[in-house]
Amino acid sequence: MDKVLDLESVMDQAGLKNPQVREYVAHWAAITGADRVEVVDADDDARLVSEALEAGELLPVGEGCYYSRSYYKDTARSEERTIVATSDPADKGTYNNWRPAAEMKELLVGLMRGASAGKTMYVVPYLMAPPGSPLERYAAGVELTDSRTVALHMIRMARVGVHHINDLHDPDSFVRAVHVTGDLENLAQGTPDDQRYFVTVADERTILHYGSSYGGNALLGKIAHGLRQAAYDGWTSGEFLAEQFMLLGIVDNETGERYHVAGGFPSASGKTNLAMTLAPEALGDRYRVEFYGDDITWLWVDPEDGLLYGMNPEFGVFGVAKDTNESTNPTALESVRPGTGAIFTNVAYNELTHEVWWEGRTPEPPADLAGWLDWKGEPVASRAPGDTSPWAHPNSRFTTTLANVPNVAPDFEDPRGVRIDAIIFGGRTRDREPLVRAITDLAEGVYDGLTLGAEATFAADGVDGQLRYDPMSMRPFMSYPEARYAAHWLEVIGRAIDQPVFAHVNWFQRDPEDGHFLWPGYRENLRALLWLVWLKAGKVTGVPSAVGVLPKAEELRLDDLDLPPADLERILTVDIDRWCQEMGFRETHLAQFDGLPEEIWEAHRRVARDLGC
Fold this sequence. Notes:
Structural class: alpha/beta
């Protein structure tokens, strides 16, 4: 009885008034057996950081940044342990790993019962949208976590505070997100007895994650709410799309014209580097790139003006550290400068100098090994001769707020979102895909997104050059069947009176003889995007092809770019034979999705016919 009274007092003192949230907190405090409950506000950050430093959960990095190390078997998302559960078997898709809601809830409650004994349960009320957004009613959530570092990451990744959930129009309209770390050393990760479960009970707007304290497994506002749950909400409401898309703005400093581009990319295909790019030096006086987000975009059509809008629902960046440097992504480095409050996870750490390092940060690792610990906390200097294992985990991360990104758009918190001019897709492939091809037909654009993929290795898949398909870059985040997903895309984007131009981009073509990259990439990629938005605006015409409109060489701004004519010709050419092989793979891929809209199949047949396959 004393514990109940104490809980009520804690919520009173924190100003937590929403009766539905209070009931939810009490319910799960009883199940998890947490010894203490603390309601978190963004203003608590400095105190929580101080406590985490004192407890050794964080270590200092320079001035005003921090280092966190996760358990060595807890370093990434686990797709095979990630489940979408509902009470309707018709929600089962090819990729969403569907299970019955009743079965999953019983299992997770059993795993979580008493699992937070001796710990504090942090109550993190959050909003995954700027206040006042037309999608705000889908954005409120309350994460319960028994990890202080998770609470600190959430403060950087979402808008945190009780005021976001106290005055909801419907007090029950928040996502219930429960995170219990579990006994990480005894969860049998990666074995047949694996006890980890990361479940989104989508039709009940409930997220239950057990068995991790890392990344999207634990920061439940991010992928679980911002993608899986939001995608399901967008579909069932018919109102919006929630996609794993970056979002950037392009500003013409001379004319004042503004364009906004959203886009999906499979892993290792350059999404974050593109999202945080700057203009090439040769074009920097004329054009400016503005950052909105690197990972999630919600898309909807405003019923009043009939235009397509987008926004990044997140408040921060959870970026991959590996290969981030002054050449690949100077914007990212600036966003984690001293004093930003950034948190680095699983990079190498120097316990003497409080520096951090990761592979690709500099051409060579630090020469003086004194004080350097690898991502497992083991001294680098003690390694056996010839040990070349990474100092930092390949999935090591940095977490920082959007406001710390130097070229963040001035209107990144505008609740109205920004008008979307173009939607792009891009997967890493050494051939087949030209630099950029624009698609002006809605069904063909959606078809292209559904057949998005990145090149698999011959050794892994046995088929040289075959793509691992990742529809719209949402394969790990699908929450309902792919055929319905395609239909929802056609419906939502189809409402727009001025539809975006679609496009496919590829920065990774290689010369078949010596393997050199045909396009320099990184900041130079803006040149392809400029052509695309000019096409949308009617300033260029391009050249029609079977797979979309290609740029004429003279339409690209290639100022000060030393590009051999043969390389330029190759990246603006469609390889018909390679494409005909690809069309067979695409047909097999799409055939998995029962009930796919006929418009998608028509687009597939039209492309195949125009290619002459």
